[in-house]
Design brief:
Blueprint: E1 6-8, H1 12-16, E2 24-29, E3 34-40, E4 46-48, H2 56-76, H3 83-98, H4 101-125, H5 132-142
Antiparallel strand pairs: 1-4, 2-3
Helix pairs in contact: 2-3, 4-5
Length: 143
């Protein structure tokens, strides 16, 4: 497998903290209320090249995750936190919210809708029809 192809949108170090054996964790599907047998946390919450094939963002996030892991370990171990530690927890929360698979899909859909609206507006301003072909062109351009 190419280096860093499997890019996690939930840090492995975070998932590991929910493991009893250091390798697996249990999954519970909230939607259908189904529990699943423990699975390797390494095989969850990732997509191939989620942050791109150039690895620049993946490498930057890895550095940040190391700092976050230290602070989150301190929380688990009930070690008093400094103001810098609290800032890192806030940073983790903001970054984690933005890097989920759902947020990525939402962003893609938002971009498509924006391009369709632009296309419709330009067509109207030029007196041209905005048909299915024009809409499909906007979708392709957005992707």
């Amino acid at each position: 497998m190419p280096e860093k192809k499997r890019q996690h949108y939930v840090p492995k170090s975070y998932m590991k903290s929910f493991s009893n054996d250091g390798k697996t964790f249990a999954i519970f599907n909230l939607k259908d209320k189904t529990p699943y047998a423990p699975v390797p946390y390494d095989s969850q919450c990732y997509a191939d090249y989620f942050y791109g094939e150039d690895r620049a963002l993946e490498d930057q996030l890895s550095e940040m995750e190391n700092a976050w892991k230290t602070v989150l370990d301190n929380v688990r171990n009930q070690i008093p936190l400094s103001s810098d530690d609290i800032q890192k927890i806030k940073e983790f929360a903001v970054f984690q919210r933005q890097r989920t698979l759902a947020e990525s899909e939402y962003g893609k859909q938002e971009k498509i809708e924006l391009y369709i609206e632009y296309g419709r507006s330009i067509s109207e301003n030029k007196g041209l029809p905005f048909d299915d072909a024009a809409k499909e062109a906007c979708i392709q351009y957005a992707n």
